[in-house]
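Chapter review: from sequence to fold.
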Amino acid sequence: MRRLNLRETRGRHLKLVCLMAVLSLLIAACAGGTDADDADSAEGTTEEADGGDGSDGSDGGDSDGGEGSGEDAEGEDGGGEDGGEGSGEDGAGEDGGGEDASDGEDSAAGGGTFRMAVPTVVSNIDPGVYEGTPSTELEIAWAGPLYEFADPEDVTDDTLGTTGLDSVQPLLVESDEEEDDGSLVITLREATSPYGNTLTSEDVAWTMQRVLANDFVGQFVLSVGRIDAENPIEVIDERTFRVNVTEPNPYVRAVLTLWNLSPLDSVEVQSHATDEDEWASEWLSSNTATYGPYNVTTFSPGESITMETNPGWPGDAPAYGEVLMQQVPDASSRLQLLQRGEVEYAAGLQPEQFASVEGSEEVDTTTRVGNTMVMLELNHAFEPFQDQQVRQAIAHAIDREAIVSGPMQGFADVLANQLPSGLEQPDPPEPYTYDPERARELLAEAGYAEGLEFPLTINLTRPGPYAEQIAVLLESQLADVGITAEIETIASNSEFEERKTEGQLTAWLGANTPIVPEAWYFMQLEHHSTEAFQNFKGYANEEFDALLGELRDLPVGDERDAAITEAHEFLMEDVPYVPIFNSQLLVATSSSVDAGSLRQYSPFGPLVREATPS
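The token string follows.
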């Protein structure tokens, strides 16, 4: 086993952060921040490429967002309380929302307006511009990707939200066939954009070229699927094309589920291009041109988005003809708007707020399994944390049940394994148990019978406002086994991210969400010694890197499952960080809407096209 000095890896990580500007898991979504209640959350974060996200107390993503972020491209909220002028405390009231906004009366397309109070509205709706969690949570509403994730066939009420490579289904694809070299021949469904143009193979080819020229998140995700950057799409006929890959791998369909890879109406978009702006970035910053279920009709950056149905959408017609997304940074205000019936959906409610409306007459609620892991991150440059037994001791010292039932109000799943429970995976290894006596034994064996001390740093954006309550419980639980953890709160999210990426934190609460919900992707993004965007803890193990390399391109099936299990068992023994819980997706709608109809997978927002009146 070899441990790299964190200083040796820090320069590489910082280069990656700069290069990935918006990446870090998934780009999951995608790390796990909460809503934009932190005024610093848009200051250039570095967490999700996975993700982002993070969205449920997340994320991303994992991949935090914001312009110039790099840790999980699925990550943080790019907004903040000062993110949208004019959104106000009851932001759904004036600009197209609130009581003046159609109040559920039938409107042009499918009948009625679906009003959404969200923490942050993006400042740019170009699919090639990534702004963290707001991009992953909002833009899926009008996107029309080639494929989408679906609930597994054997899904139960307890596993709703779980998904993976086995659960990808066609969306704008009529049929596909995988060739011997791993390339995918796709035939498109018949679809029409809001501008009257028919979906063609040329649209797909042009969109891919635009992604490769402008969208670093898209470029990265295409590389996960080994899609050939030199010749990604080969047009066969008007509706048939080949997705070229450099090597066979199981991720091609999965990466084509991303919102930012949705085919664009290339005829319409190119009509707005200029010599100085060949990809029509200026026009796309405030207009949409997908073949998805909705089209943006009004966009006020950082304030609101209004959409109407696309009559050329080939899927089932949405029940709501109009959708209004209004920025309301304060979670309490979003809850009040929902309770007063002034919005149909409130995003980003905190556990105690969600608990307060469960079973009420005004609000319908449901939960789904999320992919956001909340963990105690351990900087491996700190000498005690270089000892595997110390890390194992901490894993056994934590009473996860107390944290889930306390700060999380039961709206999380105990996580005592090294993979988020929302990822499809083989049966996990035996979990870490809460065993203070075993923790003390391990510390003594490691030479710390008299205990050890370290600062425990928290930020109220990641994993969320409940971070302080979690930290207080951790402080007490660790003290019980002889470990003194002194809580340090960094109010500024940007300062927290900067100190983390520069290796200045010893231990901290983290939250990450993969944008591609798959076990290898998560482990690679988190723990690979040279290729992990989220490995700010400095974990490095050549044996584990080799396991990831062997697992990467194995086809879905028994051999891949066995390799996932082997890698997972390795992590359980080596404890690169200490998992605590897996966040749940908290879905809250007005009683006029069936909350269960809003299908959602971390780090993305709900599929509004499926919202159904109750």
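Two observations follow directly from the output. The longest strand covers residues 363-378. The mean pLDDT is 86.
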